[in-house]
Write a structure and sequence with these properties.
Layout: H1 3-13, H2 16-46, H3 52-76, E1 80-85, E2 95-99, H4 106-113, E3 118-122, H5 132-138, E4 141-143, H6 147-158, E5 163-165, H7 182-191, E6 194-203, E7 221-227, H8 233-237, H9 242-267
Parallel strand pairs: 1-7, 2-5, 2-6, 3-4, 3-5
Antiparallel strand pairs: 6-7
Helix pairs in contact: 2-3, 2-5, 3-4, 6-7, 7-9
Pfam families: Acyltransferase
Transmembrane segments: 20-45
Keywords: Acyltransferase, Membrane, Transferase, Transmembrane, Transmembrane helix
Length: 269
């Protein structure tokens, strides 16, 4: 093996064993943090004065801050790098933030970026002992696919909350285009004043569906977040009855994400 090839190989490995150790530490920290929130932090917050919305706001701000510290921990230890474009446009009243879902920690980034946001999270997290208590205190919405979920999400938007949703419902299969369920579009039409797409790109892919945490790539992972232009849901609501408008909005978003992700692929180094 010549020196040039050897140098490239070493660069591609990119501190592999250190990153494996740091990834294990990150997952351990996340689990311990969830347990600490359940046993210590939220019981203390619950003793502070204030009405129910005040307690909910404190809980969400706490989770957001801890999530962002977790992201910074992963970045400082070399697990990942990231860049974010347009974050200042996130967190407006009645805004629905809709993102694709390539990795397990997408939601950690977005909640960390938007301190008081509500979020539609998968139902299994409500049975997880590390996440059940934080979810109850923050009043995030369980994605159980019911009409009650759609009503709760739309009501949250109409009350002025920011809502984060991943319309795929699960992580994108590597190499496959995102498949958006129509529920996200239906919620936007019923309650959102603004719909803002966020395109997430992960290179190389990691923490995809059914991929164990210890199967890390040979080089450091980079997360890219691009906040797109606002979409007015009422422009689609005027196109016809609710089912037809929902289908048209969902189709528009589907093509939008496919186009933006393909553009990211063409411009990637």
């Amino acid at each position: 093996m010549d020196l040039a090839t050897q140098s490239v190989t070493e660069k591609n490995r990119d501190a592999y064993y250190w990153r494996l150790l740091a990834t294990a530490a990150s997952f351990a920290l996340f689990g311990l943090g969830g347990l600490c929130l359940r046993l210590v932090v939220f019981p203390v917050l619950g003793c502070l004065p204030g009405d129910a919305p005040t307690h909910r706001r404190r809980a969400r701000a706490t989770v957001s801050r801890l999530f962002w510290l977790f992201v910074r921990f992963m970045a400082r230890t070399g697990v990942l790098t990231y860049d974010i474009q347009g974050a200042e446009r996130l967190g407006r009243p009645g805004q629905m933030i809709m993102a694709n879902h390539p990795s397990l920690i997408d939601v950690v980034f977005l909640i960390g970026l938007v301190p008081h946001a509500n979020c539609v999270v998968k139902q299994s997290l409500w049975q997880n002992p590390f996440t059940r208590s934080p979810l109850r205190c923050t009043e995030y919405i369980s994605n159980d696919g019911s009409m009650d979920m759609l009503d709760a999400a739309a009501d949250a938007l109409r009350s002025g909350q920011t809502l984060i949703i991943f319309p795929e419902g699960t992580r994108t299969q590597p190499g496959q285009p995102p498949v958006l369920h129509r529920g996200g579009a239906a919620i936007a039409l019923r309650g959102a004043s603004i719909l803002t797409p966020v395109v997430i790109k992960v290179s190389p892919t990691t923490l995809t569906k059914a991929e164990p945490w210890y199967r890390i790539p040979k080089r450091r992972v980079h997360f890219s977040f691009h906040v797109g232009a606002d979409i007015d849901p009422q422009a689609f609501a005027a196109m016809g009855p609710a089912p037809q408008a929902s289908r048209k909005l969902n189709d528009y978003l589907h093509h939008y994400f496919i186009k933006e992700l393909a553009q990211d692929e063409r411009t990637a180094p």
